[in-house]
Amino acid sequence: MRRKLLLLPIGSLFLFALAFTAQVSVQNVSAAGASSETQPVYTTPDGFLLGSVVPGAYARLVRNQNGITTNVHTSLEGSGVYTVWWVVFNHPEDCETYLCTFDLPDLVVNATGRIVPSGAPANFSAWLGIGGPYSGEVIPDFNGSLTNPEGALITLVVRFHGPPIPGQVPEQLSTFFGGCPNGEGCVDEQLVVFPGDCSGDCLVPFP
Predict the structure, then answer these.
(1) pTM of the predicted protein model
(2) Is the pLDDT assigned to residue 125 strictly greater than 70?
(3) Is residue 48 packed enough to be buried (19+ CB in 10 Å), middle (13-18) or exposed (0-12)?
């Protein structure tokens, strides 16, 4: 994943603050020693630019000391192959800028993928454990591991890989450029952000 995909235009940063303040839902699940957080799903028209909310879509993240689990319920404009990617910032409290948007992540790894039929709801589920190694494709420049599941800032990226290509579907479902020769044709369409322990200075809007 190129660095430019991880940059949010400054004009979008204040929208993040509003979204997290108004729509975040966090629940402690004491019996399981876990916490559950629900966030809206956004379109992302240009890399990590925060677009409009996808009507009726949401994602839930459950955290405990062993890892994180997500369930994404959304709708997508076209049928085809889609993947979901974990983008992990283990210590957002140490980020130099608002919500880690100009810092490099510790880990970018494939979470899951599926073929979505036309007009059908899209549901994705995945789990990520601490430490690794990971079975999904890890982007080489961001090949660390999840070390702080209960406090990490987690971004989920929903990525489109075009229509199913005979003989290439497994690659489309599991790799960043699957089905996209020379990186052309794959598009990051939606994103979700779970801010974790991003508080204090890292939540101050950019000047």
Answers:
(1) 0.84
(2) yes
(3) buried
